[in-house]
Design a protein that fits this description.
- The chain is α/β, with parallel strands linked by helices and about 500 residues long.
- The protein has helices at about 15-20, 60-65, 85-90, 125-130, 145, 150-160, 185-190, 195-200, 205-215, 250-260, 400-410, 425-450, 485-495; strands at about 1-5, 30-35, 75, 95-100, 100-105, 105-110, 115-120, 165-170, 220, 230-235, 240-245, 290, 295-300, 310, 340, 365-370, 380-385, 395-400.
- It has a seven-stranded mixed sheet.
- Helix 11 packs across helix 12.
Length: about 500
Amino acid sequence: MVNIAFEGCCHGELDKIYRSLAKLSVPIDLLIIAGDFQAVRNSRDLKCMAVPAKYQQLGDFHSYYSGQKVAPITTIFIGGNHEASNYLWELYYGGWVAPNIYYMGASVVLNFCGVRIGGLSGIWKEGDYHKGHFERVPYTEGTKRSIYHVRQYDVLKLYQISEPVDIVVSHDWPAGVEHFGRLNELLTKKKFLKSDIDNKALGSPPAMRLLERIRPRFWLSAHLHVKYTAIVKHKPTDQRTSVSTDKTSRLTQYFVRNSAMPNGGQNANGNADERGIGVDECVINEDEINLDIFSGQEGSNSPDGQVLVEDRDDDLATDIPSQQLSKSLGEQAEPTESSSHVFENEQVTSREYITDEGDNGFPETRFLALDKCLPRREFLQVIRVPTREHVGAHRICYDPEWLAITKATEPYMSLDQSQTNFFATASEQEALKESIRQAREWVQKYVVEVGKLEIPSNFIATAPCRQADDFSTSQFQPVEYNNTQTQDFCDLLGIPNRIWRE
């Protein structure tokens, strides 16, 4: 088993997060942060972050970048919508942003002690989904935002995963996942979400398709600054994912019926079906699943047994006894088997092409979203995950399957505004599958067998640290930096480095 701490949005508060983890009486093997990390090295990086000027704060990261501080726990993170995007672009394939702090990349699967962890950076916006990665510094106000919008190319790479994945991390929620938990409790905390939920505009449709496709043990998200849990039970691959309850609630009936309607439950005028049941009218059935699924305890309102850290007034967490650690997956209370109703996500564009070849995922996915790091907020939780192998040293490693997918799909990556849909027909899918198979053989021979799976500790500072800032020019965006980590990765796979533009 490995003990993995999960943090919601970081927003530059690394010191508080690490101090909170230090108060735990259980050892933490890995920290995962679900975006809005804000790897800001200096004041010029702030000019590449899409936040209002009054929120442009350096935060704690620059101290870790400069070497003044070192992360006490191996930390990995994905990108959100409030990032120094210029720095993350340097490490498009992933890399160390500071010693012991690793950016996972635009999309990825990594391996930590036998636990496979996938990640998808950014947030969903339909208008930019089918574009290439065309944004480069200096950013306009538009490209400063479009650069963190999820691209179909990066999603389709994850669709090629065929081996079981334990954890997937995304910044925004998979579209519709809120309906697999206690929705009324969510709306009690976040009333303003009702409109988006009513209009089926909340979350990322591609992320939900990935959840249905990959079927990981856990799916972790942030973005909405609230703790929320849900259980998504999966049906065989030839059927849709289902909502499972002992009795069909009116909310479930409403969501299922409208999801199956043309135009995603909208009438001819493009408005939500007026005959439907409004979310505020629905009462969650008392017989529905009511588990704190990450603690194994009945009743999600009770803090007993939760491995949960709340930032107190002193910015430190209270001590948590080791016996309260989240139970392993095999020990957790299981949801009751029950009737199922088809969940269909009509928001997903028809340009997505997925081939299913058997049940390689888990029968259910446990979803957890957490808050940001603030006093009295639920921003941190620990889970125990079983490993597939005994690993002595806790190191982050490349995943052979992902390396093969990256090598096979690299030629299709676009750096222009347009992006070719690279397997739109059955013959193209077969050609891609064969390319991945050949790449997997190559990876086995030139990476796995020669002992190059462990990610090297090759961090290098590319930009000036805060102490070296030229404040006379800090109002301008920085130049583009060449990161040798990206070149090392491309050399490892024998692919061209198109991230660096000379």
